[in-house]
Design goal:
It comes from Roridomyces roridus. This is NACHT domain-containing protein. Keywords: Repeat. The protein is α/β, with parallel strands linked by helices. The protein has a 4-stranded parallel β-sheet, with helices on both faces. Helix 7 links the parallel strand 3 and strand 4. Helix 1 crosses helix 5 and helix 4 packs across helix 5. The N and C termini lie far apart (about 40 Å). About 35% of the residues are buried.
Length: about 210
């Protein structure tokens, strides 16, 4: 398999951006929110543990690495560090979504899947074709259809040519109506007995509850 690489010039990209324009959060990256990264020599062990789990050389059927901690414990700083570190390797994140109560567009649960889909289209021409074909016919109205058509289908296509596909979602508990929203998203992404390719990795942070 080839190493992952982000493509800058993708077919169908303009169409996808226009179709998703009213459904995405624009300030979803850690750099958009001025998130800091871990100071040198801090959080070393957890960074190593996550790095091993994300390594293409590590075989695992577990698709989600869930990091929990109380408010102010540095979860977002760790998340920003993971994205920053992976950006310097051959396994950059395919999509990131940083949720913040200070940025209203990010706490809307209706924005999370379309925003990730837009990034997947930017990351991979193969994903862009899948997403384009879906949006050409319709914008999926239900969350379940959005996850299946704009997230899982493109991810399966990306996995055909990439050693590892990483998606990071930070502060999932800060979504509006989080108890319902989080269960709704994750029960579709990774239900019991799901058949996602082993190459897909979700890194998620939230408060313990």
């Amino acid at each position: 398999m080839s190493s992952p690489s982000t493509e800058n010039s993708l077919p169908n990209q303009d169409f996808i951006e226009k179709q998703l324009a009213n459904h995405v959060a624009t300030r979803h990256k850690f750099t958009d929110q001025s998130k800091s990264t871990c100071a040198t020599g801090t959080r070393v062990e957890i960074q190593k543990e996550i790095g091993r789990w994300l390594s293409p050389q590590t075989s695992s059927s577990e698709h989600i690495f869930w990091i929990t901690g109380i408010a102010g414990s540095g979860k977002s700083t760790l998340s920003a560090t993971i994205v920053d570190n992976l950006g310097k390797t051959k396994t950059p994140v395919a999509a990131q979504f940083f949720i913040s109560r200070n940025i209203g567009e990010t706490i809307n649960p209706n924005h999370i899947v379309p925003t990730i889909a837009k990034q997947l289209a930017e990351f991979s021409p193969a994903a862009a074709r899948i997403i384009h074909d879906t949006l050409k016919n319709h914008f999926p109205s239900s969350l379940e259809d959005q996850v299946k058509e704009l997230l899982l289908a493109p991810l399966r296509e990306i996995c055909k040519s990439h050693d590892r596909v990483v998606i990071l979602i930070d502060a999932l508990d800060e979504l509006q109506d989080a108890a319902k929203s989080v269960q709704g998203i994750l029960s579709i992404i990774a239900p019991k007995g799901c058949d996602l390719p082993d190459y897909i990795r979700f890194v998620i942070t939230s408060r313990p509850e």
